Amino acid sequence: MTAMTDADFRRAIRARTLRRNLWLAFLLLPPMAVMFIFIFLPMGSAVLYSVYEWDGLVRGDFVGLENFREVLFEPQKSKFLFNAFKNNVIVFVSVMVVQNGLALVLAMLLAREPKGYRFYQVVFFLPVILSTVIIGFQWKLFLNPVFGLVNNLLRAAGLDSWALPWLGLPETALPSMILVNAWHWVGFPTLVFLAAIHRIPKDYIEAARLDGASEWRIARDIIWPLMAPAVTIIVVLTFIGAFNWFEIPYVMNGLEGAPGYSTDMLGLLFYRTAFGSISATDSDFGAGSALAVLIFLFIFTVSLIFTRLLTAREIELA
């Protein structure tokens, strides 16, 4: 057998590199094509539509930033924009406190591996895999003021005064939806936090216990700081999800953000503006696209800021 020359060796390396690159291209091209068709192409279309005037489906003259000015500064439209934005902020803060706070508590309890803890993991995560539309319809029936399960249970417990039209009052409609969302999604941050806790070396916790540290101090000074990467993921995803909120308010209280726009969201406002509704029969693709661009820029910018700040905290703790 003849020895391989340097030229043969280089050719073999090039051939191997070429095969690897072709294989990587084969794996990456389909998801890249999907992202281009369903994400980047619609984003580019929205930017293009936002700088034109529209008469129904017919594109009119180029108007530059006029649609953006109309959405942001025209009183009749800006009041709906800032009301929806306020509601999205309320959703984000509430979900962070209620849903993610409860998830952290559940993760801490499951990390102690109580009897049947694997069963509880499945139970907590099960609602996450259900369709959001199904969840919305299910809880809309549960919260029905006449035959709903919630009010029937309250009446059976002798709490008739607590039996309210939960989705019909401005004071209770949005909090009810936030609780439904928390019930639906609490399992996801629970498992993320639980995975982060399991990554913490047990020697740290055992050493703290030997030094006489309480469970609260262990959680505050050891577990919480070392969970920083998981917290970054959950905060950013919660922010994106809160400002993309659409399915639950749409299914449970309709496109108008009833009652009295108390559950109106940026996503609902975009849909009404672009495609029309009962109160806004005329669709306006230009203003709707401008609103979509503004929502995207806001979410993208704030997500980057959150990621930068929270990642810096991770590095500092490390």
Automatic annotation (TrEMBL):
InterPro entries: ABC_transporter_permease, MetI-like, MetI-like_sf. It is a multi-pass membrane protein. It comes from the Bacteria. SUPFAM superfamilies: MetI-like (SSF161098). It is found in: Cell membrane. Belongs to the binding-protein-dependent transport system permease family. This is Sugar ABC transporter permease. The gene is yurN.
